[in-house]
UniProtKB/TrEMBL annotation:
Coiled coil: none annotated. One of its GO terms (molecular function) is protein serine/threonine kinase activity. It comes from Paenibacillus agricola. InterPro entries: Kinase-like_dom_sf, Meiotic_Drive_Suppr_Kinase. Keywords: Kinase, Serine/threonine-protein kinase, Transferase. This is Serine/threonine protein kinase. Transmembrane segments: none annotated. It comes from the Bacteria.
Amino acid sequence: MSEERIEKLIDKVEKELLPHLHIESADPRNPVVPHHVPFPWKLLGAGNYAAVMTHPEMDDFVVKVYAPGRPGIQEEVEVYRRLGNHPAYSECLYVGSHYLILRRLRGHTFYACLLRGIYIPQQAVDDIDDALDYARGRGLFPHDVHGKNVMLQNERGVVVDVSDFLKEDPCSMWDDVKTAYNRFYFPVFHKLPIPEHVLDLVRKSYRWLDKRSRSREDS
């Protein structure tokens, strides 16, 4: 990954992407909405803080653009600084005004694997466990780790979103995901595609139960 290629990508971001990109942040509890991604840029996904895009000429990188008013870019930079070089995580290669250039991780999210009936081996789950333990050892607090934020890459597990790893409040999401895999996925559904409306119902039910649990703890 030469500095020359990074410089070329920065130039494309500043001149071709950002002037034409519009990202709406309507609700902090939901993903941001990119309304226009200029050709030939490709939208890879959107989270609660930012949208992620790549350029076909340099698709071994991704550009993560934070929506106006959404905080967190400096925190994410610090997370990547602490993580250093680890096979289960990306690397931050450049920090712009409100965007990051990251090394691209390729594969299918666990969520996409469930939709398509792609088998998720136990090794990939163990890899995520090991990666999160590594992050804790670097003074981080794995947070918001779920099926859309972890990926199957060459039969191994990788973590694709670390933006909340400085949050110190407890998060049991990954443990809950593992419980669901062990109870339902591996015994029953590991070879079957699961309809999106079913996964969406599970996601909404989890958020509702989690909200109720927090309300009880606060009362």
